[in-house]
Amino acid sequence: MRLAKPRIEPAQQDNLTPDQTEVLAPMLKTGRVLNVFRTMAVAPKAAKGFLAWGNYVLSRRNDLPPREREIVILRIGYLCKSGYEWTQHKRIALQSGLTDEEIARIKIGSAAPGWSEADAALLKASEELHHDHFITDATWTALRNHFSEKQCMDAVFTAGQYTQVSMFLNTFGVQLDPGQTLDPDLKKF
């Protein structure tokens, strides 16, 4: 985690404005609103637009299968040194079919041994987007060997979305939710 305490205090569920209540309504129904969403609710108009795009990225409308999408999300989260993002999506990645061993290798990235060509291409694309905001021709060709044009677009959309998420999580100091433990490799930042 970059910060030991929040710079932006999350909205408190017992003191929400009408706009905050509207934006958090779907989550309030479940009885648990994560710190990321309570922090975004401090700016409810921004949160409303942001969540619409985020819902696309995490939906079935995104043609990248959930497992592959989580590879991109975790690699971006790790490269951005976002302890909150990594913690939230590690659980989702396991539910989406990634193994603990694969998740550990995501920290190393595309250079780690044992990846399929398709997985290595997703990791390499994520790394290039993070470092240069561009996918090289060689990596694009490798992606296209395994994924449709729309899936390649969705990989870029996913990397961009989670770069933005990591930026605000880190900068606003969003803290882990109760019961979560920070990965030791992300404690040093």
**SSE class:** mainly alpha
**First-residue to last-residue Cα separation:** 6 Å
**Beta-strand percent range:** under 5%
Give the helix tally: 9
- Please tell me the total number of domains: 2
CATH architecture of the largest domain: Up-down Bundle
Count of strand segments: 0
Here the CATH topology of the largest domain equals AhpD-like
Radius of gyration: 17 Å
Shape: globular
What is the residue-averaged pLDDT? 96
CATH class of the largest domain: Mainly Alpha
Note the run of SSEs as H and E: HHHHHHHHH
Task: State the helical fraction.
Answer: 55-70%
Quick recap:
With 189 residues, the chain is mainly α.
What does this structure look like?
Helices cover 61% and strands 0% of the residues. It has 189 residues and is mostly helical. The protein folds into two domains: 13-57, no CATH class; 66-172, Up-down Bundle (AhpD-like). Helix 4 (66-79) runs parallel beside helix 9. It is globular. The N and C termini lie close together (6 Å). The relative contact order is 0.18.
Features:
mainly alpha, 189 residues, AhpD-like, 61% helix, 2 domains
List the helices and strands and how they pair.
Blueprint: H1 18-28, H2 35-40, H3 44-57, H4 66-79, H5 83-95, H6 100-108, H7 117-132, H8 137-144, H9 149-172
Helix pairs in contact: 1-3, 4-5, 4-7, 4-9, 7-8, 7-9
